[in-house]
Design a protein that fits this description.
The chain has three helices and seven strands, in the order H-H-E-E-H-E-E-E-E-E. The chain is α+β, with helices and mostly antiparallel strands. The protein has one domain: Nuclear Transport Factor 2, Chain: A, CATH 3.10.450.
């Protein structure tokens, strides 16, 4: 019985990560409909950027995020590394370092924190926040693999 429960938990974790990856894929495609399909309409996102002693917190609704996505220019690529997933019933959290590339060049890195809820349609992102860090890297590390 324990093995079955572990398998079910692993399947839920995989499903949660797949939703986050679908958001990243929608961003890369600049597909607002695909993004909205994994976001709760009433949700929000936030960004945190530190520049010395100055901290800037930004954010907006998921709807505005999708609108900006569709109207933006250039290619985007965001990649997770070593994500940690916690699932309890119908709620889940994904915590993951990421790197972000714009038009094939390194832009920045940081940490993403996603909060998800399992709805009748499946897992949806209720909110997310991220840090913006590491705005410069050595040239050899700036091209995505």
């Amino acid at each position: 019985m324990l093995l079955g429960m572990a398998g079910a938990a692993a399947a839920e974790e995989k499903a949660v990560l797949a939703v986050v990856q679908r958001l990243f894929d929608a961003m890369a495609a600049r597909d607002s409909a695909a993004a909205l399909s994994v976001l709760l309409p009433e949700g929000r996102y936030f960004s945190v950027r530190e520049n010395g002693a100055q901290v800037t917190v930004g954010g907006t609704s998921h709807k505005e995020f999708a609108e900006r996505l569709a109207s933006g220019k250039g290619q985007m690529l965001e990649r997770m590394s070593s994500p940690q997933v916690l699932v309890h019933g119908r709620i889940a959290v994904v915590w993951t370092p990421y790197d972000f590339h714009r038009d094939g060049k390194y832009s920045h890195r940081g940490v993403d924190a996603f909060q998800l809820v399992k709805t009748a349609e499946g897992w949806k992102i209720a909110s997310f926040m991220y840090t913006i860090e590491g705005l410069t890297l050595p040239p050899a590390a700036q091209t995505p693999r």
